[in-house]
């Protein structure tokens, strides 16, 4: 059953407010108020400051007693499958270098849950249905940390074990994860201001990254990057949602009411984390940025449809 009123309600009140900042960045980029170099500076802030705060904030908000592990495991299967498929195809078909192939795999598998689906869900769903999104967000912090580890290994010509461990000690998402866990494990209550600090800083991640995305998208895209963007978009927008429905609903037997927000993550735009860390590893951002734009536009319709879908 499809409720047209609910569709437009979720579109206007949940999706559009979140997406506006990206289009605003695109407009200002077209008018040459901002250049790509300035967008990369914004992304550097997001990667080094906002992401650790966001990781800590996610861990502090996660309700560990209410995690639906069977549902999450099934989603993880779809996510890792897409990661591997994206990496292998980029390496073998597009002849991408190792760091680029890793980030393409990350772009294909990591949905924009933190900066897109989560803000929409907060506006439109009760917290009981949001915890599954937070679970995916928290676990993806670990996968993102692993991705950065792989990127460090792939980009370093001579990296000893000691240097590698030292470098991972300042791995942004991992650092935030560790800080969040330390706060949880401390056997007494800390000032509420500590949690509010992480929350306040993390709130800057979404608008800053989406604004920078709009700036980069306003510039000319090369043809080779265009083909990679088509590939990423196809896997993210078509393959992942269908695969998730098969694994979670058909084979897994989960009800749509219990897995709706999880399926919204599967149908979400390309995540911004691969885009955020690409400049740091000298990987071109155009293909990922373009795929984010296409999936972003499609999600204006797709997310509200999944959000009200009745099976």
Please, could you describe this protein's structure?
The protein has 311 residues and is mainly alpha-helical. It has 14 helices and no strands. The protein has helices spanning 4-30, 36-61, 69-92, 98-109, 113-124, 127-155, 161-168, 172-185, 192-202, 205-217, 223-251, 256-266, 273-277, 286-308. The chain starts with a helix and ends with a helix.
| Helical residue percent band | over 70%
- Low-confidence regions: none
Query: Quick check: average pLDDT?
Result: 85
- How many individual helices? 14
Q: What is the overall shape?
A: globular
> H/E element string?
HHHHHHHHHHHHHH
Strand content: under 5%
| Helix vs. strand class | mainly alpha
**What is the distance, rounded to the nearest whole angstrom, between the alpha carbons of the first and last residues?**
7 Å
**β-strand number:** 0
Largest sheet: none
Cα Rg: 19 Å
Write the layout of secondary structure elements.
Elements: H1 4-30, H2 36-61, H3 69-92, H4 98-109, H5 113-124, H6 127-155, H7 161-168, H8 172-185, H9 192-202, H10 205-217, H11 223-251, H12 256-266, H13 273-277, H14 286-308
Helix pairs in contact: 1-5, 1-10, 1-14, 2-6, 2-8, 2-9, 2-10, 3-4, 3-11, 4-6, 4-11, 5-6, 6-8, 6-12, 10-14, 11-12, 11-14, 12-14
């Amino acid at each position: 059953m499809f409720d047209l009123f609910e569709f437009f309600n979720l579109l206007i009140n949940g999706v559009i407010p979140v997406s506006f900042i990206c289009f605003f960045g695109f407009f200002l980029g077209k008018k040459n108020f901002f250049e790509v170099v300035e967008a990369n500076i914004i992304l550097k802030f997001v990667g080094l400051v906002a992401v650790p705060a966001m990781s800590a904030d996610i861990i502090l908000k996660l309700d560990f007693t209410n995690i639906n592990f069977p549902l999450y495991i099934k989603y993880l299967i779809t996510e890792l499958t897409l990661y591997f498929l994206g990496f292998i195809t980029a390496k073998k078909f597009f002849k991408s270098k190792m760091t680029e192939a890793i980030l393409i795999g990350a772009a294909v598998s990591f949905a924009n849950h933190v900066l897109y689906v989560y803000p929409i869900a907060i506006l439109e769903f009760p917290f009981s249905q949001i915890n599954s999104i937070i679970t995916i967000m928290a676990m993806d912090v670990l996968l993102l940390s692993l991705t950065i580890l792989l990127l460090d290994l792939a980009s370093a010509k001579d990296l000893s074990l000691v240097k590698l461990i030292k470098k991972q000690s300042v791995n942004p998402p991992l650092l935030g994860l560790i800080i969040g866990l330390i706060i949880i494990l401390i056997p007494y209550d800390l000032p509420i201001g500590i949690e509010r600090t992480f929350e306040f800083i993390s709130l800057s991640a979404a608008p800053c990254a989406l604004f920078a995305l709009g700036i980069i998208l306003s510039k000319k895209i090369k043809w080779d990057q265009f083909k990679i963007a088509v590939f990423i978009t196809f896997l993210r927008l078509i393959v992942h949602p269908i695969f998730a429905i098969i694994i979670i609903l058909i084979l897994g037997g989960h009800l749509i009411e219990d897995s709706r927000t999880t399926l919204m993550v599967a149908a979400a735009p390309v995540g911004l984390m691969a885009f955020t860390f690409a400049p740091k590893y000298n990987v071109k951002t155009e293909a990922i940025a373009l795929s984010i734009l296409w999936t972003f536009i499609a999600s204006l319709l797709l997310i509200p449809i999944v959000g009200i879908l009745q099976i």
